[in-house]
Structure formats: structure tokens, C-alpha cells
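If you are new to this repository, start here. Below is one unmodified record pulled from the training split, so you can see the exact layout before writing a loader.
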Amino acid sequence: MTMDNVRRLYERFETDKELRKKLYMAEGKDAREAALREAGLFFTDAEFDEMIDPLHVKCQTVEEAERFFEFRNWWDMLRRS
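And here is the target side for that same chain:
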């Protein structure tokens, strides 16, 4: 399920610096999607948006919520570039 890939990317957000670097370096949507496919994490923008609320609800502490919002803002910045 590709929406689950959003959760998997979120879980790898802080630890997988190489993947983050590839996504930062990707020029445009097609290159970003290729990097996600290579990592086995492809999802659409609509699927990302659909997973926002379920991921946010799982936050149990302020720190988890801050980490979640950092992830969400990071992805929003990438997909708008």
C-alpha cells in the first residue's frame, strides 16, 4: 500500500540521511518520485495528504508532534520546489 510508504518515510526521516540527501538533490517532481521508487517508498501527493491526519493522531507527546510537523513541513517544501 503506497500510503503506508508515507509512514515508512516518516519513520526514516531522521535516520536515513542518504535518502534525505537524494530527495533534497532531486530536481523536480519526476526526480523526487524516482528517488522514492528507488527506496521502495513511492507515494503520490494525494496519498501524502491523506496520511497527515492518521500520522498526527499517533503523536503521544509534544516532542513527537514537533517531529511530525518538521517532517510535514519538510515534505511540503520539497514538493513545492
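Two things worth knowing about this chain: Residues 2-80 form one domain. The chain has five helices and no strands.
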